[in-house]
């Protein structure tokens, strides 16, 4: 191209970073470009929430109008801000690599409470203008107050610094791109699988006139077709739901071990409890249709679900099921009892890590009132153990994020190999994590509880039966069989292996916690 390309962009720091990123990428392939700053409706109206603004494309419409008028050659957008349909005459010519689409919860340090999930103090004020974020936040922390938060990234952080909020939520991608130092705050990173992002969050879209075939061909050097395929699914689901940026919808698609994994969260409004759905597929053909069908208003749910553990009245799992009038039968088929009542904290003097494979291990260890002569790090198998660790006043330095203990062991070994690790746990542990550690690692097993099977376990007539441990499977099937038509959900691969041995089909939730369980029931 023998002329300078004009790039249209909004004027915020993040938008300018994005536009300059494209400008520099074009320069790398010997294309000269310059920026034209354009103010959008979303930039001008800062006193209203998005759901009160009329129309769509609050941050894109004016850029698209200048494209159509020919005053700019291309527009750079945060892909999540774009309406699901291009105006006639415009196309997305290229999609960037995707930054991590995780969310960040920034908390004033004097508003941190480790005993609360997400670490915001009880009843804290959290700033966000997103109904999607609001619904997902309130699902796990209904005590929080959510207040409107508008402005660019530095402006929002400034409002937190001025203590107008106790915490705010931001997309990690914007903070990363701007290189903002967050050390003055406590930061909780919420992964895209636990807190589902907006469709296309973290990616840039380069929009041009459809007739500009020369520029289209040039921009293919900047295009990432694998990212575009995943974003097409996410935005396709958004389009099928007929929503814009005010819709409380999160969709995240990724490839993992050769398969596509898609996570969806949808609520009726910002105050509503969201339903979640997880699907794994070899291809994306028909996946959007399957997702939308799961959220149909007339779909049928199980009448009753049995789970082999006690469930509190305020638990996420209970709220997710009771929303759809699903009866819950919750009873543990095992008992746990302590095996020691005294503990010499001297053993902790040379310990670097303490790793818990269950919330029972956490509970019984801290009942021993350990005294820590030096700072130690804590590792946990999953979210349930992490929550129990928080209740005892400690953050986890490592949280296993997989159903497969071998994967958790490998991830933990990368951090802890060669150190001294204490493993409080059952009196006959499976030692899955220990087996993944190197020979140079000092391993100390500390039995703190034992499991006792209940006698004469009564059968259940529930439509869906959820088993939370291998011991619960053993206790139930010592006297009972599955009834015709009952669906089985198993938490963790070790529980699933029991059903493999029995030749029983089962569903394995993506995550071995209450959110994963709710997703699994929703998917049946």
From TrEMBL:
This protein's record includes keyword Hydrolase: no
Keywords: Porphyrin biosynthesis, Transferase
Annotated family: Belongs to the HMBS family.
CDD domains to which the protein is assigned, alphabetical: HemD
HAMAP family assigned to the protein according to its UniProt record, in alphabetical order: Porphobil_deam
Domain Porphobilinogen deaminase N-terminal: 6-215
Oligomeric and partner information: Monomer.
Pathway field: Porphyrin-containing compound metabolism; protoporphyrin-IX biosynthesis; coproporphyrinogen-III from 5-aminolevulinate: step 2/4
Cofactor note: Binds 1 dipyrromethane group covalently.
Entries under SUPFAM superfamilies matching the protein: HemD-like, Periplasmic binding protein-like II, Porphobilinogen deaminase (hydroxymethylbilane synthase), C-terminal domain
Name of the protein described by the UniProt record: Porphobilinogen deaminase
PANTHER family: PORPHOBILINOGEN DEAMINASE
EC class name: transferase
Protein function: Tetrapolymerization of the monopyrrole PBG into the hydroxymethylbilane pre-uroporphyrinogen in several discrete steps.
Modified residue annotations for S-(dipyrrolylmethanemethyl)cysteine: 245
Note: The porphobilinogen subunits are added to the dipyrromethane group.
Record-linked Pfam families: HEM4 (PF02602), Porphobil_deam (PF01379)
Molecular-function GO terms, alphabetical: hydroxymethylbilane synthase activity
Catalyzed reactions per annotation: 4 porphobilinogen + H2O = hydroxymethylbilane + 4 NH4(+)
Keyword Lyase in record: no
Needed co-factor(s): dipyrromethane
Gene field: hemC
Enzyme Commission identifier(s): 2.5.1.61
Residue ranges occupied by any Tetrapyrrole biosynthesis uroporphyrinogen III synthase domain in the UniProt entry: 318-507
């Amino acid at each position: 191209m023998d002329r300078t390309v004009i790039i249209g962009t909004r004027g915020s720091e993040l938008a300018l970073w994005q536009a300059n990123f494209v400008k520099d990428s074009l320069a790398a392939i010997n294309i000269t470009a310059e920026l034209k700053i354009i103010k959008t409706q979303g930039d001008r109206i800062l006193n209203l929430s998005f759901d009160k603004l009329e129309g769509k494309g609050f941050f894109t419409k004016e850029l698209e109008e200048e494209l159509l008028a020919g005053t700019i050659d291309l527009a750079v957008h945060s892909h999540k801000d774009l309406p699901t349909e291009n105006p006639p005459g415009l196309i997305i010519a290229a999609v960037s690599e995707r930054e991590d689409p995780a969310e960040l919860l920034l908390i004033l340090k004097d508003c941190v409470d480790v005993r609360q999930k997400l670490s915001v103090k009880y009843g804290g004020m959290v700033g966000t203008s997103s109904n999607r974020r609001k619904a997902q936040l309130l699902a796990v922390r209904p005590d929080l107050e959510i207040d409107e938060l508008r402005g660019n990234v530095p402006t929002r952080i400034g409002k937190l610094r001025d203590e107008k909020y106790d915490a705010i939520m931001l997309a990690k991608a914007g903070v990363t791109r701007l290189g903002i130092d967050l050390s003055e705050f406590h930061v909780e990173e919420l992964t895209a699988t636990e807190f589902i992002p907006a469709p296309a969050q973290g990616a840039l879209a380069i929009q041009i006139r459809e007739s500009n075939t020369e520029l289209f061909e040039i921009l293919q050097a900047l295009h990432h077709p694998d990212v575009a395929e995943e974003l097409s699914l996410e935005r396709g689901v958004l389009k099928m739901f007929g929503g814009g940026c005010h819709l409380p919808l999160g969709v995240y698609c990724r490839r993992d071990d050769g398969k596509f994994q898609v996570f969806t969260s949808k609520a009726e409004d910002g105050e509503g409890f969201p339903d979640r759905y997880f699907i794994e597929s070899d291809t994306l053909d028909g996946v959007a249709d399957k997702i939308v069908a799961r959220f149909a208003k007339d779909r049928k749910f199980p009448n009753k679900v049995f789970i082999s553990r006690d469930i509190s009245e305020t638990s996420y799992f209970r709220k997710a099921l009771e929303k759809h009038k699903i009866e819950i039968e919750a009873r543990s088929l095992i008992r746990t009892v302590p095996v020691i009542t005294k503990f010499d904290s001297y053993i902790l003097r040379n310990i670097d890590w303490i790793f818990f494979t269950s919330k029972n291990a956490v509970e019984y260890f801290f009942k021993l009132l350990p005294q820590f002569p030096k700072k130690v790090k804590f590792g946990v198998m999953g979210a349930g153990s992490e929550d129990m660790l928080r209740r005892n006043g400690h953050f986890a330095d490592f949280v296993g994020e997989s159903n497969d203990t071998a994967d958790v062991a490998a991830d933990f070994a990368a951090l802890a190999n060669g150190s001294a690790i204490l493993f409080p746990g059952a009196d006959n542990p499976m030692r899955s994590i220990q087996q993944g550690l190197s020979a140079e690692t000092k391993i100390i097993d500390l039995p703190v509880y034992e499991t006792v099977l209940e006698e004469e376990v009564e059968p259940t007539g529930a439509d869906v039966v959820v088993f939370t441990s291998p011991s619960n499977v053993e206790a139930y099937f010592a006297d009972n069989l599955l009834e015709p038509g009952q669906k089985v959900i198993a938490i963790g691969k070790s529980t699933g292996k029991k059903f493999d041995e029995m030749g029983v089909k089962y569903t394995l939730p993506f995550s071995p916690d209450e959110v994963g369980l709710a997703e699994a029931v929703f998917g049946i």
